[in-house]
Amino acid sequence: MGSLNSQENISSNLFTNPLDPEEFRRQGHLVIDFIADYYKSIEKYPVLSQVQPGYLKKRLPDSAPYNPEPLETILQDVQDHIVPGITHWQSPNYFAYFPSSSSVAGFLGEMLSSGFNVVGFNWMSSPAATELESIVMDWFGNMLELPKSFLFSGNGGGVIQGTTCEALVCAMVAARDQKLRKIGRENIGKLVVYGSDQTHSALQKASQIVGIHPENFRTIETTRSTSFALSPESLKVTIHSDIEAGLVPLFLCATMGTTAIATVDPLGPLCSVAVDYGMWVHVDAAYAGSACICPEFRHFLDGVEGADSFSLNAHKWFFTTLDCCCLWVKNPNALVSSLSTYPEFLRNKATESKQVVDYKDWQIALSRRFRSMKLWLVLRSYGVANLRNFLRSHVKMAKIFEGLVGMDKRFEIVAPRNFSLVCFRVSPAAINNKASSDQNGKRDYCCDANGDEYSVVINDVNRKLLESINGSGHVYMTHGVVGGLYMLRFAVGATLTEEHHIALAWKVVQEHADQILIKY
Amino acid sequence: MGSLNSQENISSNLFTNPLDPEEFRRQGHLVIDFIADYYKSIEKYPVLSQVQPGYLKKRLPDSAPYNPEPLETILQDVQDHIVPGITHWQSPNYFAYFPSSSSVAGFLGEMLSSGFNVVGFNWMSSPAATELESIVMDWFGNMLELPKSFLFSGNGGGVIQGTTCEALVCAMVAARDQKLRKIGRENIGKLVVYGSDQTHSALQKASQIVGIHPENFRTIETTRSTSFALSPESLKVTIHSDIEAGLVPLFLCATMGTTAIATVDPLGPLCSVAVDYGMWVHVDAAYAGSACICPEFRHFLDGVEGADSFSLNAHKWFFTTLDCCCLWVKNPNALVSSLSTYPEFLRNKATESKQVVDYKDWQIALSRRFRSMKLWLVLRSYGVANLRNFLRSHVKMAKIFEGLVGMDKRFEIVAPRNFSLVCFRVSPAAINNKASSDQNGKRDYCCDANGDEYSVVINDVNRKLLESINGSGHVYMTHGVVGGLYMLRFAVGATLTEEHHIALAWKVVQEHADQILIKY
């Protein structure tokens, strides 16, 4: 099994129906083995692809083939030409961005969804696709102890979107139209959207898409004093200033687990501010939200009950493959009012009975895949107990890495670690040859680099260190900048990662630091 | 293989890594067999699901399991509880809406995409994902003989979106911002979007999302005299009236293959009108565009050279599974200007070299799947020659069905058949007991029903006929209404459909007509 060299049956697909069940079976087994073999040998590839721009054009023909080619040839090309151009997000040595956590169950769910290949735009087009989604979104919401008002069982409800940006577009369009119905459509240019300088860029993009005036998009500055969380006081000041200028506060995105350092905005106090101004609050928990199925992390979601919508990406840290962004809203009618269309060709008795959910009215697109299948398979295949343990094991590995950083006096932790993300850098002391005198193994988070001309040098050292590490291909990490500090981000969560990979990664960091620091 | 009863290894997944390669292999083979068996036996299920709203809640537990469950149990539940709630879009007896055409190659491409599970937001995050997409979009564009200005090789370019609505949102945001940069952001309330009463509802939805004033969305009436195609003269009149009212024409969506009857708007003349007013023209060829890889159908695209963007859904009639909407634009910079964000965490040398495409700036979402993999597999596995033949075989089957309708004097064809869609109905003559005298087997398309009180009855007969047919479960068709006429739509394109299914479908129609007409 798994051999690409078998010539047997190579041309059997040429004259059969392109969905012939037996050909499906034969080729499907080949590809299962191909992917299983890929996972088995994944550590032999450089984690970050090392190809140069335009590499693939040189290797592929200029046009599609006129005649069919056998799967075996295609798989050989995948191996020879695609794999080198892949950055291996599933490698156990992948610690970049946030994880894109696969699992066997998530993969199988995607297979079943593709196999049925139904287009579940409304209930009638495939009742199971709609009903399973509503059911698993309530299951998952209960696991997260979301307030009942976000669940179908409490007159709210959940929907699977592709990504956070799509979820934000839907929530923002709903908020926009609600507001404009009150103040008049001609005032669209007065609406203001709020986030912090740590909020994901998806907020800005959603704001651009739904027609918010670009000058009315606010990124409120955060500071080290709040661990770069959005301050309710700063929000209030900004809102007041906007209102004085004749503008209308519309939408706040609070984040649970920011992109750079996974900090958590104070949800309760932010919602309290927003409610005074009739704003829609969305909580973006794209990465860290999943952790809240563990009781010890649930407190990070305290205050979510004041929000209007909440989303997390199950494809980040919850074992479904891309894409599976879970969005819950308190008032589904607000989505439906803005996103519903009911053309003649979709008219049907079930919709008219008002007994069913038609998810087309909860999202941008009409067509939709059967994505709940993979969430259902993940929940059932692993169960709540194991899912908690998987997440805890990632947090534990992050703690181990944090400990290793703490033991090397040349390095420092840059921001408090809440989940499975460690933010660290070569410390100024290491370059100043003061490492031995300044360090005591229990130092505070590093000092503010603002205004320090020295910070240019230290940032540059860390940038070079990261480039050197990633160029090696042994591990892959990415960077962040907060408060002027360039740092390395070590995000644990690739499913295959185990403790020995953490030790290896740290060894790689140290070796490259040895090389870089010798020059300073 | 394929047995769900094997107890062997049932608990082996409980203590292993959730992406363990050998467990992946074992379970992957099981699911391949499950899906192959499903295709093999697909004809035994009612095509349109016959369940009632709320059926699944009664069958599933109220919460996610605490402990893991074996795949074998889950697959048994898929069989027992999900399959009955599925409308079988892959059944050879599926003729509803437009097809959602699967293929072995499309499925395998999705598997590889899910297997690698890379998040290809920019070039660097997985160069192969970006480069393969650019390459296959040029391949496909060449197969369609798109003007070079839509291809990367001609300074345009293609991108794979999820759906037409997403493609329209992107194109419309680009058009909106281009226009507002000229006339001032404060004029957003003056922008007007144009389609016809046959344009897909995705246009209205996109328009709502990007902040076009709802009163500035125009659905221009079409008539039988143009086979319900959008008349350039009507467009011009509408535009003039808007300009006189102080509004600003922004965006026109022309359709190649409308939803109800697959008519083709006159692309060239419409583009000529639009260019005079500086409007963006999008051509939506969601269903019928694929046919243009056959030289004999390419003329339907004549005039596309005047458009700014063009899209078709490869997941409809081009053998990729959901979702794979191919969008080509002449001016990618217009998309990038509106959709680009460049936060710190995504900064990288490749982007800064300006030698690469970062597809995140061509779409709504940041994250994106490796969807080009399935288009590549479809193109290579079948080759241009076979792909043409597959599409031709569907058209041929539609012709056969059309012929069968023509031979039964109780029925009439309601609109000219261009592709693989046949629109027909029980004719007024059949009810009037005039069938034998009125019919000569070569009659024109039916008379206009407007103003005819008789049309209420005839529409009702056809509605009952469709309900009766779909209630049988033997085949599934949907309806359309144009010019007041209720008609049955018979869309050929499910991959498994062969000629004997056409004969069977017609027999089902006749039998149900026998039953219905007896009452009239």
Automatic annotation (TrEMBL), chains A, B:
Cofactor(s) the protein requires to work: pyridoxal 5'-phosphate
Record's keyword annotation contains Mitochondrion: no
GO molecular function terms listed in the Swiss-Prot or TrEMBL record: carboxy-lyase activity; pyridoxal phosphate binding
InterPro entries given in the database record: Aromatic_deC, PyrdxlP-dep_de-COase, PyrdxlP-dep_Trfase, PyrdxlP-dep_Trfase_major, PyrdxlP-dep_Trfase_small, Pyridoxal-P_BS
SUPFAM superfamilies on file: PLP-dependent transferases
UniProt keyword annotations, A-Z: Decarboxylase, Lyase, Pyridoxal phosphate
Keyword Ion transport applies: no
GO biological process, one term: carboxylic acid metabolic process
Family: Belongs to the group II decarboxylase family.
Entries under PANTHER family matching the protein: GROUP II PYRIDOXAL-5-PHOSPHATE DECARBOXYLASE, TYROSINE DECARBOXYLASE
Stated name of the protein: Aromatic amino acid decarboxylase
Native source species: Eriobotrya japonica
Phylogenetic classification of the source organism: Eukaryota, Viridiplantae, Streptophyta, Embryophyta, Tracheophyta
Gene name linked to the record: EjAADC1
